[in-house]
Write a structure and sequence with these properties.
By secondary structure, the chain is of the alpha/beta class. The protein contains 16 helices and 13 strands. The longest helix has 17 residues.
Length: 394
Amino acid sequence: MVIGIDLISLSSKSRYQGIFSYSIGLVDGLLKQKKYKVIIFCNKLVLDTLKKNIHHNFDYVIIENKKTFIHKLTNFILVCCGYLSIYPYKLYKISNDFFFKDIKKKLEKNCNILINPLVHLTVYNLKIPTILNMHDIMQIDFPNFFTKYQKSERNLSYNNSALHCSRLVASSKFMLDKFNEYFKLKSKNKVSLIEEGVSLSEKKIKFIPKLTKKLPKSFLFYPAQLWPHKNHLFLIKAIARFNKIYNYDIKLVLTGGKKNFHQNLKKIFIKNKSFVIYLGPVSRRFLCNIYHRSKAVIIPSLYESSSLVLYESIYFKKNIILSDIKPFLEKKKQFKMFFFKNNNENNLIEVLHKFFIKNKKLSPNEIKFNYTKLKSNDWETIAKKYITLIKNLL
């Protein structure tokens, strides 16, 4: 059996994003399943990045997903139809099938089953089974974060992908329910729950004090792309108020790419530079060292499918402060964490007061408890769940 991994649409620029970490982790986990051959489909530009981040030798097939002018024009017209609240799903699929027929042949020729961890399918009409991890459908819950064109494009590609994949994977019970509710799938068995994983091999990355010597001695850490749903503005306002009320000096270190909300945050970073330190995208080695140095990790997200940051924080044995959104609350029984009411500044300030002023932190035994529980989310364990799913589909 040959398991194909569709990373054709993956960009080397995405190496600082969660979707890249997810893809690399899943591939690493599957490559450890020695009974099965794994082959990666990717473009030339991302191949070197994959080789640097995947810790095993792997087979690959180069496939360039270059759209012709006619294909781009066709997609533009169909997406504009969606912009006008007319959704030509079948035409969008027919167009995709026609322009990607060569890609279809290569995928079918080289593997028995295909896993796509990149949100939507590349090809809709494969003869082999396909497993898709869509991660989220945020355009439904937070449509104001997207333009009409973006919502239309996601509507067409996401709905066709959900319809034509063999199995849709949700990384939390929250997303499983969302997929079943939104896509109105004929069978609820079409959606499977397989959680995200975490790499337990980060011990190979040593703690190097000089890498973080310019950072404050004590700080809160929030690694996240500058998307609106990551809620940076709320977090900065809450910490500014806390520092003023209690005459304290919480420092906040941020990492992550300059996404579409960066212009909104740029002035806020400058205005609050006394306690906000934005480092932008950083290497994996630097990221791990920041985790090591941090006092605690905070995740104030408005929306998540699950959270790789949560797992990474537990791996680095950190206290974690989270918004009480449903995907995080699902982990309440599994891990010891601190919660605040979602998007509630006053409540977050109360939690920060307990943590920093009253010194209510996790005990060493609770930290150890979290770390022990995390082993069930090792990527090798998660990959075994995918293998079980694959066997059911073949």
